[in-house]
Fold this protein.
Amino acid sequence: MNEQTVRDAMVPEPTALAVGDSAQDAGRYFAEREDVRAVFVVEEDGRLVGVITRKTLVREVVAAGKHPSEVQLRGIAEPPLFTLDPAMSLEDGFHQLEERDFERVPVVEKGGRLVGVLSRAVVQRRLAEDEPPELDPDPGSVLL
């Protein structure tokens, strides 16, 4: 059996905003999707620049007294703390998530192009599906 890779379990083509988009655009995005806590920011060619969170917008725009329509995301995106290569084994990718206690990590190809996001919950389910069922330590008595 071929070893599964990060690419096999990642969510492909995650939503991203462009570096030239404004903080106001990011604010609208968050307002429309209350369950989203962060969004990736990419160059025109898809290279990952960083991440914007609601907290980023408050700190870098609102608290700083800047006008959201005048602030480009390239100036406030926070560089990713960690990324994964899509060719990495899924097991190694999962260990990286666990060691760093991250729920989600961007997946980037060589050259930095964002191609997906790996979620710890998805990987846990995926790895559990591949494990053989546990044998019952006490299968009960057999009557002859």
